[in-house]
From TrEMBL:
Protein name as catalogued: Iron-containing alcohol dehydrogenase
Catalytic activity, EC: 1.1.1.1
UniProt keyword list: Metal-binding, Oxidoreductase
Species per Swiss-Prot/TrEMBL record: Exiguobacterium aestuarii
MF-aspect GO terms: alcohol dehydrogenase (NAD+) activity
SUPFAM superfamilies linked: Dehydroquinate synthase-like
Pfam families on file: Fe-ADH
Domain of life (superkingdom): Bacteria
All residue ranges annotated as the Alcohol dehydrogenase iron-type/glycerol dehydrogenase GldA domain in the record: 13-123
Nucleotide-binding listed as a keyword: no
Main EC class the enzyme belongs to: oxidoreductase
UniProt KW Metal-binding keyword: yes
InterPro entries: ADH_Fe/GldA, Glycerol_DH
Length: 338
């Protein structure tokens, strides 16, 4: 199935200024996070005139139920990925439209018809796919160019992953039009590795950075919208989910863990791109060893079991070789000491 969530995407210098006109006479309610919201208000003070409700920090079933007590004519999500995922879930269940104002360049949540659900403690449970009407994504350049750089970097890794994971599931071409479209967009995402993402470039916000931001926020999300299960997450995200069960990995961002998962995934299929990928991740300061992620040698068996569990839950092509996976992980544990 082809399913896109977004009607309009506006990435411009002062995109937020159009928000009141977009809302019109409707009763709007802002779902707000902490720092992102106050930065957005600084950029566009009129945002503070709208009634708002605070997001408690996890996209959990409990949080969705709590927020379902509010019923505006239109929801406005101002924040990061988990906040946006929560707002989508509520808007879809209430059949109410949503306007999204991303405050981080870290994920494609603003563009995907799905939500990743966590426990209240922050452990991954599942992802739900549903039809949601996102009227407009408002990507305000003033807000994004000052957003945290680490999140941007992790977002680029997560976007580059679209290519490798789509290729893992569907190969490089398909006779299914949706999957082929997803693969073409994913290939574009993979090529982001060729562009500079240094902090000074990000802050300058030139043409290349705009191009990258559009891929992180929008194009990356359209990949799964076209290809559906044929171009969604694969082993790299399974590794991410398994790693997230270890407290020692919690200070690493989503994309950082996905990047490590990509190295594991590409080694599993003996891909020639493994070295390029690893060098790229090292060059941007992302973890490429288990030691960096705080996983000890004696935890590898547990990690292997969790990764196998995750790949089964997600239902894509499984690899039948726990021994090989273990060998790869042992290799990636020790690497840092060599
Ligand atoms: Zn991801």
């Amino acid at each position: 199935m082809i399913r896109q969530a977004v009607l309009e995407y506006d990435h411009s210098k002062d995109a937020l200024e159009n928000l009141p006109a977009r809302i019109g006479k409707r009763e709007a309610l802002v779902l707000r996070g902490e720092s992102g919201y106050s930065k957005a208000v600084r950029v566009s003070p009129r945002l503070a005139d709208l009634p708002s409700v605070r997001f408690t920090g996890e996209c959990s079933d409990e949080e969705v139920e709590r927020l379902n007590g509010y019923r505006p004519d239109v929801w406005i999500a101002v924040g990061g990925g988990k906040l946006i995922d929560t707002a989508k879930r509520i808007a879809a269940s209430q059949s109410v439209p949503l306007i999204v104002v991303p405050t981080l360049v870290s994920n494609c949540a603003a563009f995907t018809p799905l939500s990743v659900i966590y426990t209240e403690e922050g452990s991954y449970i599942r992802y739900d796919t549903f039809p949601v009407v996102i009227e407009r994504v408002i990507a305000d350049e003033r807000l994004l160019r000052d957003s945290p750089y680490d999140y941007f970097k992790a977002g680029v890794i997560d976007t580059v992953a679209k290519w490798y994971e789509a290729r893992y599931i569907s190969g490089t071409t398909s006779r299914d039009a949706g999957i082929q479209s997803g693969l073409s967009l994913a290939a574009q995402c993979g090529k982001l590795m060729d562009l500079s993402i240094r902090e000074q470039d990000f802050r300058r916000y030139g043409t290349d950075i705009r191009y990258i931001v559009d891929h992180v926020l929008a194009i990356g999300g359209a990949v799964g919208g076209f290809g559906d299960a044929g171009t969604r997450v694969a082993v790299a995200h399974a590794v991410h989910n398994a790693l997230s069960r270890f407290d020692s990995t919690h200070h690493w961002l989503h994309g950082d863990k996905v990047g490590f998962g990509l190295v594991v995934q590409e080694r599993l299929v003996a891909s020639e791109d493994t070295v390029i990928l690893k060098n790229w991740l090292q060059s941007i300061g992302a973890p490429t060893s288990l030691a960096q992620l705080g996983i000890r040698f004696d935890q590898i068996d547990e990690l292997v079991t969790l990764i196998r569990e995750e790949t089964k839950i997600q239902g894509f092509r499984d690899f039948d070789d726990s021994e090989r996976l273990k060998e790869i992980l042992i290799n990636l544990q020790e690497m840092v000491y060599k």
